[in-house]
Specification:
Shape: globular
Strand content: 15-25%
Number of helices: 7
Helix content: 10-25%
Number of strands: 6
Low-confidence stretches: 39-44
Largest sheet: 6 strands, mixed
Order of helices and strands: EHEHEHHEHHEEH
Structural class: alpha/beta
Distance between the termini: 32 Å
Radius of gyration: 16 Å
Strand order of the largest sheet: 3-2-1-4-6-5
Mean pLDDT: 80
């Protein structure tokens, strides 16, 4: 039903085990943690081993340069600045573009959404009524007229995934 790509550049938070437990409560959703901090080896696999990730949680280790190359290829742009030199976790600013950027990992999902690693969820299958998931809604958000940073769902279609192109970004 749902795919949630999340990005982070730093080490895991103290509350990460609670986030992992909430992922475990939602086996119908696929969670993809994209770590792009520095070199691939900088974040050791040992930091993740003790967490016992559920099968619906995938970790993708990459570098800022690899993510930037993927974004430039998918968005058909050349960035003015290297992702690794931008202030803060800039990839999180691209959340509305995740449907294009990470489309290869989300092919089998009806909806994809953005969230954060410091959000803890209950059972999404109970929180999002079947009627909403079965409807023709292109976007599902906790607020009717606003996209919410910690949680918004987009129908995984070519048209909806490219809505962010209607805004003129300053790449």
């Amino acid at each position: 039903d749902f795919c949630f790509p999340l990005v982070f550049t730093n080490k895991l938070y103290r509350m990460t085990p609670l986030f992992i437990a909430s992922v475990r409560l939602n086996p119908h959703a696929q969670w993809i943690l994209v770590h792009y901090g520095g070199e691939r080896s900088q974040l050791s696999a040992a930091e993740f081993d003790w967490l016992e990730f559920p099968p619906n949680l995938q970790i993708v280790h990459t570098t800022a340069a690899e993510v930037q190359a993927l974004a430039e290829q998918k968005f058909k742009v050349t960035f003015k600045q290297k992702l690794e030199t931008m202030d803060g976790p800039k990839l999180n600013d691209w959340k509305p573009a995740f449907g294009v950027l990470f489309q290869d990992w989300m092919k089998n999902c009806k909806y994809w959404g953005y969230t954060d690693i410091d959000v803890i969820y209950g059972r999404l299958d109970l929180a999002i009524p079947q009627a909403a998931r079965a409807s023709s809604a292109d976007i599902i958000s906790p607020r009717e007229s606003t996209l919410m940073g910690p949680f918004t769902l987009f129908k995984n279609t070519h048209k909806v995934n490219r809505l962010f192109f209607e805004h003129e970004p300053d790449w």
